[in-house]
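Just wondering, can you check both lines?
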Amino acid sequence: QVQPVESGGGLVQPGGSLRLSCVASGSIRFYAMGWYRQAPGKQRELVARISGGGSTNYPDSVKGRFTISRDNAKNTLYLQMNALKPEDTAVYYCNREPPFPWGQGTQVTVSS
């Protein structure tokens, strides 16, 4: 399996929005997928999960601000992030259950 390619990160002011994309080399249709993030000095954490059937889960830290979605026809996963906070600053990755190799991620920096 080739690692996924994440994109869409950048520098944004607090309160701003970004939309991340993750393109997988193979089909994601029947798999649960997740967005993860890793801040400097911290462990990687799951910030959004979507089941193969479309059910979603979020930790309290992002609930109501982040929305995960998928386009199975395009093998693409999305993360809409609104009301961003400085503590959302991290490298964001996507992956599958079971996982494929981790990609390079996309840097999100929230700062004024």
About this structure: The mean pLDDT is 96. The radius of gyration is 13 Å. The CA atoms of residues 70 and 77 lie 4 Å apart.
